C-alpha cells in the first residue's frame, strides 16, 4: 500500500447552555479546520450543549435524523467535503427521563454513515465533585467504526477511554477518536497517559477532541485536545479554550511501527 498523508483535526470548545451559540462556534471552527486542510474533523463530547444540569440535556435531545444539531453537521460535512465526527449530542432514548449520548459520523457528501452510543457511563464521587451519568443516560450496546480512505476509524467517547477491551473489540484501526468532556480533576491526573496508552497498545493514531475551560455552571473541563501517533508521541495539543488541533495521519509511519514492533501479531488472547 502506498503511504498516504491525511490531515485530521480535533475541535476544542467551551460549550454553553445555548445550542444556537454552540452551533455558531462549531461552524466557525470546522470552517477553520477545513480551511487549513483537514479532511476529517472531530467535534468534542456534548459540543451542542454544556454548562447546565445533566437533566437539561434531556429537554434538548433530538430525534434521530431531525433537528438543528444534526442538520448543521450534515450540512457542514457537505459544504467542506469532510468526514465529520459529530462529537456527541443528546438523542432521545426509549426512557423519557434519559438520553443517548451519541456520536454521529457524516461522509463528505453529508450522508450519515455511522452511529455510536457511549457505552461506559461515567460515575465519580469525591465528595465535593460528583457525577453519575447513569441517572440521565441510557448506555449504548454496540461498537462503532467506519472505513475512511486511510483505514478503519474506531469510535469511543470520554469515559470509554478507561476500558481497553473496547478498543481491542473494534479490530485493528488506523485511528481511534475520543470526543470528550473530561473533568479537570481526573483529566489532569489521567487524560494524556490514557490516550497515549491506547495509541501504543493498539499501534494507531488517537484523535481526542475535548471540552476545555470553565463552563457557565462553574464546571471545569480539562481540554488538552490532542493527536497522538502510533508510537505514543503527542503530535499536537491545545491546553485550554476554543480552537483547532491539527496533524497528519501517515499510513507509512503506521505500517512502519507495526512492522518494526509487531506486538499486535504477538497477541495470545
Ligand atoms: O474518565 C474520566 O475521568 C472522565 C470521564 C468523563 O468526564 C465523562 O465520561 O464524561
From TrEMBL:
<dbReference type="InterPro" id="IPR003010">
    <property type="entry name" value="C-N_Hydrolase"/>
</dbReference>
<dbReference type="Pfam" id="PF00795">
    <property type="entry name" value="CN_hydrolase"/>
</dbReference>
<feature type="domain" description="CN hydrolase">
    <location>
        <begin position="6"/>
        <end position="251"/>
    </location>
</feature>
<keyword id="KW-0012">Acyltransferase</keyword>
<dbReference type="GO" id="GO:0016746">
    <property type="term" value="F:acyltransferase activity"/>
</dbReference>
<protein>
    <submittedName>
        <fullName>Acyltransferase</fullName>
    </submittedName>
</protein>
<keyword id="KW-0808">Transferase</keyword>
<keyword id="KW-0378">Hydrolase</keyword>
<dbReference type="InterPro" id="IPR045254">
    <property type="entry name" value="Nit1/2_C-N_Hydrolase"/>
</dbReference>
<dbReference type="GO" id="GO:0016811">
    <property type="term" value="F:hydrolase activity, acting on carbon-nitrogen (but not peptide) bonds, in linear amides"/>
</dbReference>
<dbReference type="InterPro" id="IPR036526">
    <property type="entry name" value="C-N_Hydrolase_sf"/>
</dbReference>
Amino acid at each position: 500500500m502506498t503511504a498516504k498523508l491525511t490531515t485530521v483535526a480535533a475541535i476544542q470548545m467551551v460549550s454553553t447552555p445555548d445550542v444556537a451559540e454552540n452551533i455558531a462556534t462549531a461552524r466557525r471552527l470546522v470552517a477553520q479546520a477545513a480551511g487549513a486542510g483537514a479532511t476529517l474533523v472531530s467535534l468534542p463530547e456534548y459540543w451542542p450543549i454544556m454548562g447546565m444540569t445533566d437533566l437539561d440535556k434531556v429537554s434538548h435531545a433530538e430525534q434521530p435524523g431531525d433537528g438543528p444539531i444534526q442538520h448543521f453537521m450534515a450540512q457542514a460535512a457537505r459544504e467542506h467535503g469532510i468526514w465529520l465526527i459529530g462529537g456527541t449530542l443528546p438523542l432521545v432514548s426509549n426512557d423519557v427521563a434519559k438520553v443517548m449520548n451519541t456520536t454521529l459520523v457524516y461522509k463528505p457528501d453529508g450522508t450519515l454513515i455511522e452511529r455510536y452510543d457511549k457505552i461506559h457511563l461515567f460515575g465519580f464521587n469525591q465528595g465535593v465533585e460528583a457525577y453519575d451519568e447513569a441517572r440521565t443516560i441510557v448506555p449504548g450496546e454496540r461498537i462503532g467504526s467506519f472505513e475512511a480512505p486511510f483505514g478503519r476509524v474506531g469510535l469511543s467517547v470520554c469515559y470509554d477511554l478507561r476500558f481497553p477491551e473496547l478498543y481491542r473489540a473494534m479490530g485493528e484501526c488506523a485511528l481511534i477518536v475520543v470526543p470528550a468532556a473530561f473533568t479537570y480533576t481526573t483529566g489532569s491526573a489521567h487524560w494524556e497517559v490514557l490516550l497515549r496508552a491506547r495509541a501504543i497498545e493498539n499501534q494507531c493514531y488517537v484523535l481526542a477532541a475535548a471540552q476545555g475551560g470553565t463552563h457557565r455552571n462553574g464546571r471545569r473541563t480539562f481540554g488538552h485536545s490532542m493527536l497522538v501517533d502510533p508510537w505514543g508521541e503527542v503530535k499536537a495539543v491545545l491546553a485550554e479554550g476554543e480552537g483547532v488541533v491539527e496533524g497528519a495521519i501517515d499510513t507509512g509511519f503506521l505500517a512502519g511501527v507495526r512492522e518494526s514492533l509487531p506486538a499486535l501479531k504477538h497477541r495470545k488472547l
